[in-house]
Design brief:
Helices cover 48% and strands 17% of the residues. It is built from 19 helices and 14 strands.
Length: 502
């Protein structure tokens, strides 16, 4: 018998390069209480072959972990689950095939987030689990990347993700498990070299408190405390790290490491984690860093909670910022958004009509003219490029690809590669979403005050016919709209959707 879902439960999963994490939360008297929290060391970043592909062995290990996670998702509605993947899945050549297998295991989509988006979510997790007014630096060392964030309160001010992680550095400098002074020094220098391009900006902005939120930082602190080089509330000091470096060199191999408080599976990663930590301590001028346990999965969870509250979430803030940055005519964007959503609602009232991606449609309407700030000629192409490659807080890569496709297809004739890309990202339903955006832009060509009234009606007829009807005599009074619609019918001819109007 299938277990029923429980309304209100939220689940966040972080598919990290070193560990996978799951957290499930329930509303409780106006607050959110974590009822399940699991972590498993999968080490995706250690499972690459010489072609940059995840081996079948590591994929199976990951899928076995997700099968265990899936048992804790049975009571969570699919729409209340969010799964994000990080560096290892960003760079793996065969990530897409693994993701398809993992999505079947979990019963929900997986988002591969960009490095800066990962950094933003990490900061969100730290900010909500450790509220603090004042500027602070947060560093999270993962298996394949390290994120650096300066924020104030709940707002990140500076975000960066660097290509160095405890697993990637372990493979690069300590691949055979041997530990020697030269390898350790080379690893520290490599970390400093990686941090150097961002160091000036971070030091200039400054911070009052430095925090570390990763398993690597936790392991280092545990070792330092066991050796008596850090008190219960002291955190990690540069002097203590230097002492640990000297002590570590007394061992010739990772398997020989015998520090109290260090877990067995952390031994192979201690040297690389120490090197990265020493590197950013030295390059950023850090003297002291405290460990906090909030991280990416908590950030994902708290963002979901924020969206449940219907407040202006981070996606909306990103859209408003892009509109300002690229001098978008916000009144025109609102007209197009209102018209697009009106058309979508007219379709949704018809039981046989395809399902419209209203969220992507609304966001694409808000941003359909961002490319005008680059050049008027071909501005839909410029807009598509900006939406695909900009750092957009709150949007995953698939989110940005969908927005890019919609904006790139919102005017002029649809090229065959555009048609195929729209179909590939959501089938006929997503192609129809693009058509609705095109119609909304067309209906607001005059750029006049918002018109939300029943002067038009969009109808769907099976198998694939879209008909836009107007009040009698309206088109004759608006010849320019009539001309636009005639041209649009020609543009859309040959699509999987037959468009007509009257």
């Amino acid at each position: 018998m299938q277990e029923s879902t429980e309304a209100g439960l939220l689940a966040a999963i972080d598919l990290g390069s070193n560990s996978f994490h799951l957290v499930v939360a329930r509303p409780d008297h106006g607050e959110w209480r974590v009822i399940e929290s699991l972590s498993e060391k999968v080490q995706l970043a250690a499972g690459f072959d010489d072609r940059g592909r995840l081996t079948e062995q590591v994929q199976e290990r990951a899928l076995h972990c997700l099968s265990r996670f899936a048992q804790h998702l049975c009571a969570v509605e699919p729409g209340n689950r969010r799964v994000v993947g990080t560096n290892a899945l960003r760079v793996a050549k065969n990530a897409s095939s693994f993701i398809r297998r993992a999505e079947r295991q979990l019963g929900c989509p997986i988002e591969i987030i960009a490095g800066r988006e990962e950094a933003r979510l990490i900061y969100l997790g730290v900010a909500y689990t450790h509220p603090h007014q004042g500027r602070r630096l947060v560093v999270d060392i993962g298996g394949g990347s390290t994120e650096f964030i300066i924020g104030d309160g709940y707002e990140p001010l500076l975000l960066e993700s660097l290509h160095m992680g405890c697993i990637s550095y372990q493979r690069r400098f300590f691949g055979d498990g041997r530990i020697d002074a030269e390898s350790l020094e080379q690893a520290v220098l490599a970390a400093r070299h990686e941090v150097m391009p961002i160091a000036a900006a971070y030091r200039e902005l400054g911070w009052e408190q430095a925090l570390g939120s990763s398993g690597t930082i936790k392991a280092l602190l545990s070792v330092l405390q066991s050796l008596g080089w850090a008190g219960a509330n002291d955190g990690i000091s540069l002097a203590a790290l230097q002492q640990l470096k000297l002590r570590l060199l007394s061992f010739r191999h990772a398997l020989e490491i015998d520090f109290p408080g260090l877990k067995e599976d952390r031994k192979p990663l201690l040297a690389s984690g120490l090197a990265i930590t020493l590197g950013f301590f030295q390059e950023l001028g850090i003297e002291h860093l405290h460990y906090v346990d909030g991280a990416l999965r908590e950030g994902v969870l708290f963002e979901m909670i924020g969206r449940q509250g219907q407040s202006l979430d981070v996606q909306e803030r990103t859209i408003r910022a892009m509109q300002a940055r690229y001098h978008v005519d916000v009144e025109q964007a609102l007209r197009v958004r209102q018209s697009a959503l009106q058309l979508a609602e007219q379709l949704q009232a018809q039981s046989t009509a395809p399902r419209i991606d209203k969220i992507s449609l609304a966001h694409a309407a808000d941003l359909h003219e961002v490319g005008l700030d680059v050049a008027h000629s071909g501005f839909h192409k410029h807009g598509a490029y900006l939406l695909r490659y900009s750092d957009m807080a709150g949007f995953s890569r698939p989110d940005q690809e969908r927005l890019s496709l919609l904006v790139g297809a919102h005017r002029r004739k649809l090229r065959e590669e555009q048609r195929l890309a729209l179909l590939d990202h959501g089938g006929r339903d997503f192609l129809l979403t693009a058509v609705l955006l095109r119609l909304a832009v067309l209906l607001n060509h005059a750029r006049q005050s918002p018109v939300i009234n029943p002067r038009w009606q969009l109808l769907w007829q099976e198998p694939a016919r879209l008909h836009l009807s107007f009040a009698r005599g309206w088109l004759e009074k608006h010849p320019l709209t009539l001309m636009d619609l005639q041209q649009e019918a020609g543009y859309l001819a040959g699509l999987e959707i037959d468009f007509s109007f009257s």
